[in-house]
Amino acid sequence: MVGGGCYGTFYASQLAKAKARGKTDYRTVVVVDRNPECQARRELGEAPDREFVVSDWTAFFDQFLTASHDDQIVPSPHMPHLMFEWVLRRARTRWPNRAVSVEPVPGDFPAPYDRAGADSTRYVSFADWICPTHCIEPALCPAIGAPRTWEMGDSIRELADQLRAGGRPVTGPALFVCKHQVFGVGMFSAEAVRGGDALVEAAGAHDATAEVLVGTISSCHGALNLLTVGPRTTHDPRRT
Fold first, then answer.
1. How crowded is the C-beta side of 79, counted as CA atoms within 13 Å?
2. Dmax over Cα atoms in the chain, in whole Å?
């Protein structure tokens, strides 16, 4: 659970209700927040299947994502692009003598909302309206009362194809897809994040420049980055 504020409190509460009603099962909900007295701890407290970790998210995921487990990550709607940041740190550690950078994501995208952040993250959304709180993105969109005719993952894969057709050395996309699981709680797999890291490693295994399109998305919204690994130099000690 990323954060123990209002969203984390809601999600942890919903998971507890779902488990009590036999709608889901889990070993432990881990709530990660820098504040030892975060809202979730104050309102929900410790439980046999709930624990709190006082940590910076970056430090937590550096340890959590290197373990071999397939736990689920429950993101906050307003968290930074933490999974991409982890993949980026891994790439810079893996190739200390190659230029590893974040470039603006090029190409045309069909979403009505399309904005670039100061850190070169491209934020896209098919909603040009205010979405209902904790929307589970059903087939019938509750905001417009009509079928949802879009799927963010499909559009991003088409974007990657578009960039390759234009001559860009793009691999991927590596997508961390947040999907509704139970009682209004969406999550994605830690294994999917490690898979994105493996995709970057494979793309950079050659001497040439590599570009990997990475996104954390739901059906309607997404945050996209283009991770670029520069060419190897002849004196690069890590040529294997």
1. 24
2. 61
Tokens found for residue 208:
């040439």
pTM of the model: 0.92
Count of beta carbons in the 10 Å neighbourhood of residue 188 = 21
Look-up of token digits 């950079």 = 204
**How far is residue 151's CA from residue 111's CA, in Å, rounded to a whole number?**
10
* 29 Cβ neighbours under 8 A, 6+ residues apart: 1, 12, 15, 16, 49, 50, 51
Under a CB-based contact definition with an 8 Å cutoff, are residues 88 and 216 in contact? no
Strand 179-182, strand 122-125: pairing: unpaired
Residue 97 CB neighbours (<10 A):
12
Model pLDDT for residues 124-176, shown as the tens digit of each residue = 999 999 999 889 999 999 999 999 999 999 999 999 999 999 999 999 999 99
Cβ neighbours, 10 Å, residue 165? 10
Q: What are phi and psi of 169, to 5 degrees?
A: -80, 60
Backbone angles phi, psi at 120, to 5 degrees: 70, 10
- In angstroms, the CA 33 to CA 160 distance is 35
